[in-house]
Amino acid sequence: MNTDAFRQILSDWRVLIMAVLIIASVASIYLLSFNPDAGLTGNLQLGLDLEGGAWLQLAFKAEIVGFSTDVPVEEFIPDLRDRLDAEVYLVDDDLIEIRKFYTREELEPVFTAAGGTITSYTQGVSEETADDVKRILEEKVNTLGTRDARINTLTGLEGVTRYIRIELAGADITTAQDIVGKQGKFEIRIQTAGNATEHVLFGEDITSVSTPSQYPPGSSQWGVGFTLSDSGADAFREAAITYGAVRDPDNHQLIMLLDDAIVYSAPLSPDLASNLQGFPVRQLSASTGSGAEGLEQAKTLEIHLRAGALPVDVEVAGSGSVPANLGEYFKIMSVLAGIFALLAVGVTVYYRYREPSIVLPMIGTNVAEIIILLGIARFIQQLDLASIAGLIAVLGTGIDQLVVITDEVLFEGRVPSPTLYLKRLSRALGIIMVAASTTFIAMLPLALMDLSTLKGFAIITILGVLIGVFITRPAYGKIIMGILSR
């Protein structure tokens, strides 16, 4: 190819975009946050299949119960809560979540006594509670600095989440179990004079924590309610009176700490300060502000108030580990599988066209697609064996589509006139778009449903399809035109 033809190819905006993305992807894998010990994999997130590690699958010891009752719901729910001695929340108009494990047979007489009947029973928790548990576990993982962790909730079609799965690459099973069971040290202190503070109570004096809600009800202010034990309420009142918080709340703020780090600080409200002068108060609420930011802060504060304890008891339903040496073996075999797949594709394409000027751009475009895909996946997806399978699937479907373009644009073995070429290229890209759409639709349920490793396969496949349709296929069309038109 002469210099003018080469320059013409590089000046096309489709080819430029692909080149820029290749450079950016290589930089994201090997240059950004450079890890000298990572080797060939650079900054790619490797799952426990390739790096070794441990996994736990936890079952929620709770249930979602459908009910019917003639008793007003605002009376029925508190009655159940007292009879069961458990946290009970309304999930839907006729569904409640009981955060304590009971069989249906154990619940039926309790519901009857409260004036209701059970219409359905499913072990597990609501998606909202499952998300709370996931956020708590993610915060614990982040606090411990564990590398390459993945936490997935496993939700059924009825919307009830029964399991949550924790995968920790590079960690042992003991570390995984510690993350689930370890609680932090929660403490409430009171400001005395200046920056000095005094201890009021520890987390064990908090008997229950509610989910974030609007305080007062109907307002735009979000907050988290919590209940103190009798001894905790007495200690809280005594400290507020002794250090002057009931008389001058603004200069005697209450400070909440988790593992000695401040997580919340605010003065007593005027109503609470007034009440504390006469009697202990067990029911308290911490306001976090309004709007979406206030809600997010309330969710975070709820986690802190629980000191990292899960709102629902869990039991280990399954566990396992992949030794580091086995993970290294899988890593080597995955690289070899990719190389052999690329060689097989190259031989097949060469056998069809017998023309290096066609085969090399095809293989180069395919490699470029994989590089861009890895550069993007490095930020959003761990690479495990299922994800590697997705990469190989992308490699195969990519070559199929490049063959479609090549066969469509060639006319009697040569490139036609520019006008006819562009018309044929548009038709080929239309065919590819339809094929890519079917793949996208087929993979979308797997990507949206919490099916553990299958989700990674679907995400990689969808990303590969999108990159191919919008970046590499159009660029290849211009490249092959510039090469063959000579």
Task: Summarize the entry for a quick read.
The protein is of the alpha+beta class. The chain has 15 helices and 16 strands.
Fold and architecture overview:
The protein has a 4-stranded antiparallel beta sheet with strand order 6-7-1-16. A 4-stranded antiparallel beta sheet has the order 3-4-2-5, with helices on one face. It contains 15 helices and 16 strands. The protein folds into 3 domains: 210 residues, Multidrug efflux transporter AcrB transmembrane fold (Up-down Bundle), CATH 1.20.1640.10; 61 residues; 122 residues, Gyrase A, domain 2 (2-Layer Sandwich). The protein is elongated and about 95 Å long. It is of the alpha+beta class. 53% of the residues lie in helices and 21% in strands. The model has no long low-confidence stretch (mean pLDDT 84).
